[in-house]
Amino acid sequence: MFSATCVAPVNMALVKYWGKRNEELILPINDSVSMTLDANEMCAKTTITASESFKQNRMWLNGEVVPFEENARLMRCLAGVQRLALANGAHKLPLSWKLHIASYNNFPTAAGLASSAAGYACLVYTLARLYELPLNEELTTVARQGSGSACRSLYGGFVHWRRGSSADGSDSIAVPLAPAGHWPNMHMLILVVNDARKKTGSTRGMQLGVSTSSLIQHRAKEVVPRRVKELMAAIDSRDFQAFAEITIKESNQLHAICLDTYPPCVYMNDVSHAIVNFVHDYNETVGSLQAAYTFDAGPNACIYVLAENVPRLLAAIQLAFPNDAQQSVEYLKGIPVPPVELKNGLRDASIGHVNPNNMLKYIIHTKIGEGPHQLSDEKSLLIDGFPLPK
To answer: 329 — phi, psi (to 5°)?
Structure first.
């Protein structure tokens, strides 16, 4: 019996991936750039065990049985890793042995918080550990075939997913731009508006966008190449002002494309737009761009902010979006934040108006993080090849 348990982080896109030119290989129509988040707050954890005694491949997600052979993306990832293992020739594990896979997300699934990116990155990385494969660009092409953005979660810090041009996808790879230590005070506040499964999945939304939006190809050909170059320069120089402006405009454009889709894909809601208004009011009040929002395919806001500005921003958020449970550890999760009292002038101008109570479900405070890593055997999710009892 062979077993491996690994953890993989979430990544949040700065320059967005939206649209495929090949559905099966998951080849994007444009480059994207992301930031990997600290796995201590948000991650996928996966255990894979292989045994000669297993009769069939099996998988559990968050404790529930899920299809294995019927899952085309899962099977492509398994086949891709096993192909690399066969070419590598260093593995001790017979490829014919069946697998039992248990995976768990410590954050909401399919709510626009990149759960599939962390999940498939963790699957591929754990398979690589099981078959004794190194992390390299070729492995990112395998993760990409599970969930496009999963290739970015195989690295920490800032990551660039190159579109590539080859029909077989061999040059559509993720490469690291800068490690987490390059900009260690880059933090994020995630304002969770709704953690339920979204109405229109990202895959369907992209398909509709590519086939019906008149703006999406202009974005892919004209806008994204320029923004990638500008964002890479901002990251290199740790220029938060430029970083924030590009990030905000990218988020706005993604959702403009979604509205230009027919029928439109509406991922943001009234609370999302209230957060957008708040961020712009806040930045105007403090006199510089200290907060930068981005929304993926969901209503939840991810706000980039430097560590030294987190306490004041969080205090303003809690004034603008009051919550009955805002002092609870279940409401404010993640890295602790020291309390700060806002001056009345900042308070009045930064809020604009106080929103109704309990518009936010909870807040997660996290920061830039490292890539996947392997855990010790005692942290396995399986015992004798089956899920541990809850």
So the answer is: -70, -20
Owner of token pair 């405009």: 249
Q: N- to C-terminal Cα distance for the chain? A: 23
Q: Are 265 and 209 in contact (CB under 8 A)?
A: yes
Q: How many CB atoms lie under 10 A from the CB of residue 349? A: 14
Count CB-CB contacts under 10 A for residue 171.
13
Nearest alpha-carbon partner for 191 in 307, 122, 114, 271: 271
Cα torsion 335, 339, 342, 346 to 10°: value is 0
Q: Are 16 and 250 in contact (CB under 8 A)?
A: yes
Phi, psi of 191 (to 5 degrees): -95, 105
What is the Cα–Cα distance from 385 to 378, expressed in whole angstroms?
14
C-beta of residue 299 within 8 angstroms of C-beta of residue 194: yes
What is the pLDDT of the chain when averaged over all its residues? 93
**Largest Cα–Cα separation, the chain:** 69
Q: What angle do CA 168, 174, 177 make, to 5 degrees?
A: 150
Q: What is the CA radius of gyration of the chain?
A: 21
Distance CA 189, CA 196 (A): 19
Angle CA 312–315–320, to nearest 5: 125
Position 323: which residue type? Answer: N
Q: Cα–Cα distance between 67 and 309 in angstroms, integer?
A: 45
DSSP state of 37: B
CA distance readout (Å), 223 to 21, 80, 158, 236, 276:
17, 33, 20, 20, 22
Identity (one letter) of the amino acid at 244? A
Per residue in 81-117, pLDDT (tens digit) is 999 999 988 678 999 999 999 999 987 655 456 688 9
Q: Which residue has the tokens 């230009």?
A: 260
CA distance 7 to 386: 19
Give the tens place of pLDDT for each residue, 250-276: 999 999 999 999 999 999 999 999 999
- For 315, residues 6+ apart whose C-beta sits below 8 A from its C-beta are 339, 340, 341, 342
Give CA–CA dist 125/140, Å, rounded: 9
> What amino acid occupies position 81?
V
